[in-house]
Amino acid sequence: MTETVRGMKERPRIAVFGNFGAGNLGNECTLYALLQNLRDRMPKASFLCICSGPEEIAAAHHVAAFPIRQGRLPRAGNFFLRALAKVLCAIPLEVYRWWKVISIIKGSDMLLMTGTGMLSDVGITPFGLHYDILRWSAAARLCRCKLLFVSVGAGPIRRPLSRRIVKTALALANYRSYRDQFSRDYMESIHFKRAGDEVYPDLAFSLPRNPGLAKTRRPDRRSVVGLGVITHSRRRATAENDPSIYRRYIERLADFAAWLLEQNHTVRLLIGDVAYDGPARADLRRILESRGWTGGEAELIDKPAQSFEMLLAQLAQTDIVVASRFHNVLLAVLLNKPVVAISFHEKVDALMSAAGLESFCLDIENVDVDRLKQQFTDAEENANELKLKLERTTENYRRSLDRQYTAIVRMAGSRELVPA
Fold first, then answer.
1. What domains can be seen in the chain, in order of their start residue?
2. Which of 57, 61, 132, 213 could serve as 65's disulfide partner, Cβ 3.0–4.6 Å?
């Protein structure tokens, strides 16, 4: 392959792996930020994406896109036929999947593994996404394609087999960085420690600046509170499903929303996942209406975002944000909005702590409405100070991610593999 006089390959081929195209708005903004930054720095590079929704991603980003897992076992009508299909087809299907993965990744210069929650075990089994990560990682190394895990979140991983698979995939990498100190510390706690692994912020902090997101004041001068909802019922300590967690959370969130309306705030409902957050929106409205609320859009704005661009625009029109989903909170920080987090996962705790907002964080399993009201009031009263603090934080994050992109570009232009 021809190279420029500075050693850069004329047209590097970059593959990106992640849970993209499935409706999670945080994942989509991560992919957009990564592609935009790499395209700015490597305008002649070509990209392909290995993802959950290849048709959606190909159309949105004008890249070649392929499913994470190729082929399915044939469906059979009864237990006996299903078992027979597994016995007869499992090995040939797995051979086919490896062949397809190698044929897709062959000729690529670099495979980037990004965030998207893939190094935890919430909703992930050892032979699900974790094994897919290992398959693509191993195929990349077999094809002499550089393997990078970039600003990934990690943990908790409770299943021993999942831990082993994830650690094996990470050990194959030429480069690893974690999006927060919790992730790196967690991997060390399960006996995966490599010198040189660094902490860089989540890639969404490198979204291109958009002056058009400047907030315009509502004509009625009411302050707008962005209230992010999440359909969540898993215990943090065990990842087991417990519907009572969701019931308590949504009822207490309705208590808080009712208080905001009484205080003459406008509440804008926010989601982070198009596929999963609909029930929480509907349940919150149902509870408010059952208690006699009959207001209109002047009080409650319920227009769920269908893209991360829409979510950004909605966040830009808020004064303060109270949210649970990781990227609802992150994008509020990015836009310098005072934010209170109702945290469902250690990654949200780590995000708030790194931004100096640990005193504005509650656990979703034990939401105290009075404490939430007080945290909101404190954020409202100290809004100007918090905005300046967040502006400094996000500028530091941007500079840090600039350094990481520079390192990625250098690796893309080098014939030598960086030692793992």
1. 13-68+106-207+397-412 (3.40.50.2000), 211-381 (3.40.50.2000)
2. 57
